Amino acid sequence: MKTSVEAMMIATRELTKRFKSVTAVDGITLEVADGELVALLGPNGAGKSTTLRMLTTLIPPTGGSAEVAGFDVVAKQREVRRRIGYIGQGNGAGHSQRGRDELISQGRAYGLPVRQARARAGELIESLGLGEVADRTVSSLSGGQRRRLDIAMGLIHAPELLFLDEPSTGLDPQNRANLQEHIVGLRREHGTTIVLTTHYLEEADSIAERVIVIDHGRIIADDTPQRLKAKHVGDRVFLGFGSEADATTAAGLLNGVREGDRVQVSADDGPRMVPGAIEELRTAGVAVHSVEVTRPTLDDVFLTLTGRSLRNEEA
Amino acid sequence: MSSLVTDTRVVFSRELRPVLRSPFSIVFSMVQPLFFLALFAPLLPEGSSLQWFVPGIIVMSCLFGSSMTGSNLLYEIQTGSHERMLVTPLRRPALLIGRALKEIVPMIAQAAVIVLACLPFGFRLHLTGAVLGLLILAGFCVGLGALSYTLALASKNQEWLFWTVQQTLLFPLLLLAGVLLPIDNGPGWLRLLSQINPMTYVVNAERALFDGDIWSRTTVYGLIAAAGVGLLGLFVGVRAMQRSD
């Protein structure tokens, strides 16, 4: 994952942001390599957006440092801005503007000549399916259409690094799936490095190859979703038996916990563990009546790490 | 430096585009001045009333339009458009200057509508004076617009603050500039307040210029007042924009 300093798209050291008495980001050190797709996961107020706002030069850090696309976010703001795309929580397009006009303005803002900006706007309108609405006033577009327009604006200059802040908040499930497809496609087709924040567990789980869990302004875990789950929670295997006596025997053999005629066993990889366990029990003369394997979610990871559930905060 | 110009042009044309797409919106924003023209002007005493009244209404129209323009930025701060612009490589000063310069365009269009509406009723237009008048007014409305944007940046997340300040200042500025009634016969304290209102000098200059009296001290005072407001507005506005997140 980590090769050389040059290949790092993002490198921060003890990045910190204090607002008066509140420390929103508390010494974050992280590296993101070229081409990674990373999700910052955490509850509201964990410091994800503040981290993103520092990395995108919107606010200066109060401590530590950060290099983005090879440039310092404080000393070389414009160099950073030229190289990154940012899709914020709100809608980027002005409501009294037309979508196509905004895309062209956005291209001009990144220094594209008018003709090139117009051509690029046309390409993005096409690829994001905005053809029918691009020449309408933004205020008349639906939430999903505006979000696609936001993505188009973020991509106008084909950035090597794209930040998305809570990209799917407020979208219905279909639009959310659609958006995730775009994000994954971007990565696959253009090798764009993508960093997004989310408090949707499923989103982090399904699209990110690397999840950085943030709580109270600190990184509390950083790994692939699979490894996070295996490391911090593991699978749970429930075996059902014909009698409590059988269950007691099985609990002893498998080092599990008995509840009535059921036994719960923890495992790093449940489905692989089950056949062997059944074989072992059969040798011992115990017949297994039912098997259920539950795989942990990232919420279980968060719960194990913090003692709190992310789901409560979603509501 | 040339890049600041390019950036300013990008911002300017972005701001102008919705106006050009629906030019009628310019007339909507000048409903109030038109009402004053239609319902107040007939009450003025006999004589050269229109010649005195119309330039003031043109300045009024500029005051109303430019002082409200910050609300557009306020809205863009709330929706996220402003944030998106802040992440682009556009220079911060351009984000303010481009917006403020755009105020000139609706101002000129509104002045034209008012003058055209008054010509049939005996208003006499002196073209050279009028052009110079609009030039002075351009400086004034750029300053007002910049101040309005500054107010918007300062009232981020508290929209009431913007409207409270804007509405509180609007009518004192207007009345003390002697737009609706002459100040000359008022009590001393009122005349003093009028004298420290830069808009007074702009209104006086517009009256003289639209009447063809070009090379007068009034013109110079108007020019100084307008340039002062313009530069102050840009200075304060650029500083506010540089601190914007």
UniProtKB/TrEMBL annotation, chain A:
<dbReference type="InterPro" id="IPR050763">
    <property type="entry name" value="ABC_transporter_ATP-binding"/>
</dbReference>
<dbReference type="InterPro" id="IPR003439">
    <property type="entry name" value="ABC_transporter-like_ATP-bd"/>
</dbReference>
<dbReference type="InterPro" id="IPR027417">
    <property type="entry name" value="P-loop_NTPase"/>
</dbReference>
<keyword id="KW-0067">ATP-binding</keyword>
<dbReference type="Pfam" id="PF00005">
    <property type="entry name" value="ABC_tran"/>
</dbReference>
<keyword id="KW-0813">Transport</keyword>
<keyword id="KW-0547">Nucleotide-binding</keyword>
<dbReference type="InterPro" id="IPR017871">
    <property type="entry name" value="ABC_transporter-like_CS"/>
</dbReference>
<keyword id="KW-0046">Antibiotic resistance</keyword>
<dbReference type="InterPro" id="IPR003593">
    <property type="entry name" value="AAA+_ATPase"/>
</dbReference>
<protein>
    <submittedName>
        <fullName>ABC transporter</fullName>
    </submittedName>
</protein>
<feature type="domain" description="ABC transporter">
    <location>
        <begin position="10"/>
        <end position="241"/>
    </location>
</feature>
TrEMBL record, chain B:
<keyword id="KW-1003">Cell membrane</keyword>
<feature type="transmembrane region" description="Helical">
    <location>
        <begin position="219"/>
        <end position="238"/>
    </location>
</feature>
<dbReference type="InterPro" id="IPR051784">
    <property type="entry name" value="Nod_factor_ABC_transporter"/>
</dbReference>
<keyword id="KW-0046">Antibiotic resistance</keyword>
<keyword id="KW-0812">Transmembrane</keyword>
<feature type="transmembrane region" description="Helical">
    <location>
        <begin position="129"/>
        <end position="153"/>
    </location>
</feature>
<dbReference type="Pfam" id="PF01061">
    <property type="entry name" value="ABC2_membrane"/>
</dbReference>
<feature type="transmembrane region" description="Helical">
    <location>
        <begin position="24"/>
        <end position="44"/>
    </location>
</feature>
<dbReference type="InterPro" id="IPR000412">
    <property type="entry name" value="ABC_2_transport"/>
</dbReference>
<dbReference type="InterPro" id="IPR047817">
    <property type="entry name" value="ABC2_TM_bact-type"/>
</dbReference>
<keyword id="KW-0472">Membrane</keyword>
<feature type="transmembrane region" description="Helical">
    <location>
        <begin position="160"/>
        <end position="183"/>
    </location>
</feature>
<feature type="domain" description="ABC transmembrane type-2">
    <location>
        <begin position="20"/>
        <end position="244"/>
    </location>
</feature>
<keyword id="KW-1133">Transmembrane helix</keyword>
<keyword id="KW-0813">Transport</keyword>
<feature type="transmembrane region" description="Helical">
    <location>
        <begin position="104"/>
        <end position="123"/>
    </location>
</feature>
<protein>
    <recommendedName>
        <fullName>Transport permease protein</fullName>
    </recommendedName>
</protein>
<feature type="transmembrane region" description="Helical">
    <location>
        <begin position="50"/>
        <end position="75"/>
    </location>
</feature>
<dbReference type="InterPro" id="IPR013525">
    <property type="entry name" value="ABC2_TM"/>
</dbReference>
<comment type="similarity">
    <text>Belongs to the ABC-2 integral membrane protein family.</text>
</comment>
